[in-house]
Amino acid sequence: GRAWAATSNIHDLPRMKMVRRWRPEEKKWHGGVCATKDGGRTWTRSNQGLPDAPVTHVLLDPARSKPGARTLYAAAFGTGVYKSVDDGVTWSARSKGIDSGAWLLAWRLTMDRDGVLYAVVRRRREALEFGDAATDGAVYRSRDGAATWERVALPAGLNGPHGIAVDPGNPRRLY
User: 13-18: long-range contacts at Cβ-Cβ below 8 A with a sequence spacing of 24 or more?
Assistant: First the structure.
């Protein structure tokens, strides 16, 4: 009966029409994580340590955590990646190495079978020109449970990833 949900008071993320006029410091967007213990009949906030920001993805690591002490990761749009090791009761910032300027537009998370994490960070502009690392989107990889992140090279001509998937047969292949 346990589950966690990402919450936000803003719609249409990560569409550029929503980001172009937004500034994280304005504190207009809100959200977090909610949890249920009864199969979704009731929900409570699970935000201790999370900023009041739209959470766009929650990822459970079932292989490296146990019931009652689940390891969870959350993508908070505008503030980065967060980790919980106590069923989502408390959270800590885990964005070291994610270099996307002042806006950490964390969007999606995934994990391969070996526990390697991947985070998609959305680009911060509408223009499709390439090579502006300060505003381009990116994919990052963490091999140490989100303690540190490294940028993954994207295919030529791609600067705005929207999602990511790991090939279950070959975890070194990303889509």
Answer: 13/54, 13/56, 13/77, 13/107, 14/56, 14/77, 14/105, 14/107, 14/122, 14/162, 16/123, 16/125, 16/126
- E strand residue ranges, the chain: 3-8, 31-36, 44-45, 55-66, 69-78, 80-84, 92-93, 104-111, 117-121, 138-142, 150-152, 166-167, 170-174
- In the predicted model, is pLDDT for residue 121 greater than 60? yes
In this predicted structure, the answer to whether residue 170 has a pLDDT above a threshold of 70 is yes
φ, ψ of residue 19 to 5 degrees: the values are -90, -30
**What pLDDT digit, counting tens, does each position of 76-86 carry?**
988 899 999 99
User: Per residue in 42-92, pLDDT tens?
Assistant: 999 999 999 998 999 999 998 988 988 999 999 998 889 999 999 999 999
